[in-house]
């Protein structure tokens, strides 16, 4: 990317230089073709870059969507983790309650055990006394020791009750012992279950944390890719700007080249017309001074303007010989003011040119002058209302001026 940027910048610089010196560098037909080729190449590069940028933007969009989906997933995992933590806390409370219950049951068991011990003692004493008295005979003695029938009945009833009570006590004693044992065992099982569940919940929590860690890791990678793509897009945008600048410079150079071609064609056409008109090669006569035309040859103010007027450009502007020839008059001459007359012999024909209203004459009669040679200073002498050069052209000598004076535009492009 940096390399292409460098090449593009170099190209832009070259085009800028080409543009600045287009008149010297862009001459041949090939240069226009080259510029057109360049423009096509730039347009292709722009299309390709635009395509690349679309792809990058699509990729960014996809990553942003993946990012959004991932965030949702992470929220879901976070909720699961929160739920797991709640469950663990609830289990902890449950376990604490059960532990308390077990403690209380242990106390109850202790009390019961104490009570059963005492009862056990009582039963043992009773059994001992029965044995000492020869088993059930003691009960018989008790019954037989009755003083009356009523007393006898009471004693039978009492003995029976005692025996029944003893049996009941023993039975309850055993039952309570078994019940306590069962309770202890079931509580222990429940505690084990809860501990198992707690372990499982902790494992789940660890697993969820791991998931979250992995997703955050992935998310960081996505972010990195996202940043990279944005960076790429920025660089592509810079490239696009450079290409646009390059395109503008090339288009300008091409327009310049086309304008130059158009002007050249126009000038060639004018030259051709001039040559057709005059029958002489273009450049046989040249402009005698450089100012703009202020008055044309032809009808003017009810009369005829016998030459063409050219405004003076700045002070001390030179009037120059329109073609090579010989000066035959150089003096102040009536309405012409200071004037120079030159006779030319061109391809066997005689021509005469005049340069009027000069402020100063710098040539003399009989002097031979070359085309473009300085004759004097453009000025305001004679019948003149402002500094200008009055120029006349005659297709013959001075004496034939009334018939053979022509519009100088026949020979000169002004
Ligand atoms: Zn004039």
Automatic annotation (TrEMBL):
Domain M23ase beta-sheet core: 304-396
Pfam families: CC_PcsB, Peptidase_M23
Gene Ontology MF: a single term: metalloendopeptidase activity
Superkingdom field: Bacteria
Entry coiled-coil feature ranges: 25-133
Alphabetical list of InterPro entries matching this protein: Cell_wall_metabolism_enzyme, Dup_hybrid_motif, M23ase_b-sheet_dom, PcsB_CC
Domain Peptidoglycan hydrolase PcsB coiled-coil, chain residue ranges per copy: 109-182
Annotated segments matching region Disordered: 255-300
The UniProt record lists the keyword Manganese: no
Signal peptide limits: 1-28
Record keywords, A-Z: Coiled coil, Signal
UniProt xrefs under CDD domains: M23_peptidase
Basic and acidic residues bias spans: 257-278
Name this protein carries in UniProt: Uncharacterized protein
Natural source organism: Lottiidibacillus patelloidae
Lineage, broadest ranks: Bacteria, Bacillati, Bacillota, Bacilli, Bacillales
